[in-house]
Write a structure and sequence with these properties.
By secondary structure, the chain is mainly α. The chain has helices spanning 2-8, 12-17, 29-32, 40-58, 65-83, 94-111, 114-127, 149-165.
């Protein structure tokens, strides 16, 4: 839906509502950037993993899914705003995807349940490989220059923080 609205607006939403690092005007991107995509291909690349990961998140109420999604979304955006390359515009759901991957992997450490351990194992097997994309192009030769490794890294860190927040006390 957002892709269509952005297309109607001549990509002005993508250009105005992405995360612009260390710019006060770019802070609103923390709210909107994960919903914005640069192309149909970008959207489709994020859609399937996002649907699967959200299904796993919301499939277990012990994960406190709404709180977890909020932490991942906002902290991932803030981290991207803090460490992102200057004069860049970060968009896309990969911030949330990387956050959900690390959350679902690490949450079993804190909840110590067999169900969480199974989910963590499945996520690690199917999505663990993407965690290499938290590395900058200098350390990851497969990373493209226009891909936000900063968003990936910030999302991954926010997911680990969210996993710690749902621990049993």
């Amino acid at each position: 839906m957002m892709l269509f609205v952005d297309w109607l607006a001549g990509d002005s939403l993508t250009n105005r509502l992405g995360i612009e690092p260390r710019s006060l005007g770019g802070l609103d991107g923390m709210l909107f950037a994960p919903a914005l995509h640069g192309s149909l291909g970008h959207y489709l690349a994020n859609a399937a993993p996002l649907i699967v990961l959200l299904g796993l998140l919301f499939g277990n109420s012990n994960y406190k899914p709404w709180r977890t999604l909020g932490i991942v979304w906002l902290l991932g955006g803030l981290g991207t705003w803090l460490i992102g390359r200057p004069d860049s515009n970060h968009i896309g759901a990969s911030i949330v995807i990387f956050g959900l991957v690390t959350f679902l992997i690490f949450v079993s450490v804190f909840l110590r349940s067999w169900r969480s351990a199974v989910v963590s194992s499945v996520v690690l097997i199917f999505y663990g490989g993407i965690l290499l994309d938290v590395l900058p192009p200098l350390l990851n030769s497969s990373m493209k220059e226009n891909v936000s490794w900063e968003g990936h890294l910030s999302g991954a860190i926010s997911g680990a923080i969210a996993a710690w927040r749902v621990r049993k006390k």
